[in-house]
Amino acid sequence: MAKGRGHGRFGSRRFGSDNGMQSRVFGPPLWVALHSITFGYPTEPTSLQRLHYLQFFRALGHVLPCKYCRASYNKFVSQKGRAPLRLATMRNRDSLSRWLYALHNLVNERLGKTRVPSFERVRSRYETYRAHTCSDSAKEKGHHTCDGRTGFRKRAKKLIPSSLPPSASLRTLEESLSASDSNQASTMAPNFDEINTSTLLVTVPRKMSKRANMLQAYINAPPTGRSLVFQTPRMIAQWGIKEWEDSNGQGPSYTLGLPFLNIQNDLDLKAFYDKMQELDEFIIKTAVANSPDWFNGKSLSEETIREKYSAIVKPSKDPRWAPRLNLKLLKRDKEVEYPVTGEDGLPTTEARREKEWACQAFGADGQPAIMKDADGNVRTGMDVLEKGDEVICVLEVAYVFVTPQGFGPTLRLKQAMIFKSEHKDYDDNVCQIVPPSRTRAPEPLESYAGTAAGVESGSEEEA
């Protein structure tokens, strides 16, 4: 096609250009759409809705029609950025809309704009755009329509046209969210990237179990002072749940192995791997700085302590195989009433003790996990999980065990969200991630608690 002039006609070369679109053209309407999405987010979203919205905003950084916009967006929302995008951001409508408000201000600050309306003003204006009547009448040719109140202003304005002046300090995202979180108790576990090892407190190891040669230390997290709980990214349960006989003769034990597959390309998985390495280093530094308390009055060298340590993520003996996170699953006794016929011939019930999983399991819809297998049997809880399924876990650092042979953290599975997979045959991917050296000099200890206040007794023994 010959190159034309005027009237919006361009030749094939122009249509094949790699140049992006002009941000002044697509930017304002896109911001209106994004703010509409956040202010339309459910006030009490389900787990599946949180994941869908999180995936959408993460994918946005890969599809913006301007390479500089994509780079800037991804930098802002990265875990170390000024507006990190986390699953916790999806807590409710207020938290998500405040996150986008803070992000929009950061973009405007980068563009040198000097005016910014308050979040409350932006929220109030968008409320005038909320639909109040919806219909599907035939008169509207089958199209679903939502209309506002009489006198609704249909022309949208630029709602955050500017940002703070350079001399002013921009509030961080966490400060922006604090207003919505101050009067609400979140039921979501913190995401793994919210772990701040500099604020953790470790108790002095004490004998808290039946094993005479084992001590236990507890890691307490602010502000509650309770045990450290966090949420993992989505991972593949490549081998499902493995059953094995415990060496202490107390019956079968169960392990869920989660390999770090495709860690080179999965940013969330790589960030989770790095965070677990950071937590390992924190525990090792604490033990090094307080060696006599941890190792029966002995002042051991750092090298010896590192050799005794059992890492959270276990590296494979074969470097071609991915490292894995091994989780010990517990079962507890439960009384179940069964209908029986009594000696007098009348119907009655009989209590029987059975085993059930000590952790909760949910499906991708956020409801308790339940399914029928190929034989028609009903499975519930963690029995739903099969080889090759994917899972998001809520983990608790139950305690740090200390024995003459070694020491390390014990992680327990508290909750799991199971995503059923059609592809069950996974091979171990070659892992090229080399764990950081454990021989580097430790940094100064930042937090150490000398008491065991608030620690529950009677914890499970380390297998």
**CATH class bucket of the largest domain:** Mainly Beta
Which structural class do the helices and strands define? alpha+beta
Distance between the termini: 73 Å
Task: Examine the secondary-structure arrangement and name the CATH architecture of the largest domain.
Answer: Beta Barrel
Q: How many strands, which pairing sense, and closed or not: the largest β-sheet?
A: 6 strands, mixed
Share of β-strand residues: 15-25%
User: Count of DSSP helices?
Assistant: 10
The stretches of 5 or more residues where confidence is low (pLDDT under 50) are: 1-7, 149-187, 425-463
The CATH topology of the largest domain corresponds to OB fold (Dihydrolipoamide Acetyltransferase, E2P)
Helix share, percent: 25-40%
Enzyme class: oxidoreductase
Catalytic activity: 2 R'C(R)SH + O2 = R'C(R)S-S(R)CR' + H2O2
EC number: 1.8.3.2
Organism: Klebsormidium nitens (Green alga)
Give a verbal description of the structure.
This protein has 463 residues and is an alpha+beta fold. The protein folds into two domains: 108 residues, ERV/ALR sulfhydryl oxidase domain (Four Helix Bundle (Hemerythrin (Met), subunit A), Up-down Bundle); 228 residues, Beta Barrel (OB fold (Dihydrolipoamide Acetyltransferase, E2P)), CATH 2.40.50. 26% of the residues lie in helices and 21% in strands. The strands form six sheets. Strands 4, 7, 8, 15, 18 and 19 form a six-stranded mixed β-sheet that branches. Strand 9 and strand 10 form a beta hairpin. One of its GO terms (molecular function) is flavin-dependent sulfhydryl oxidase activity.
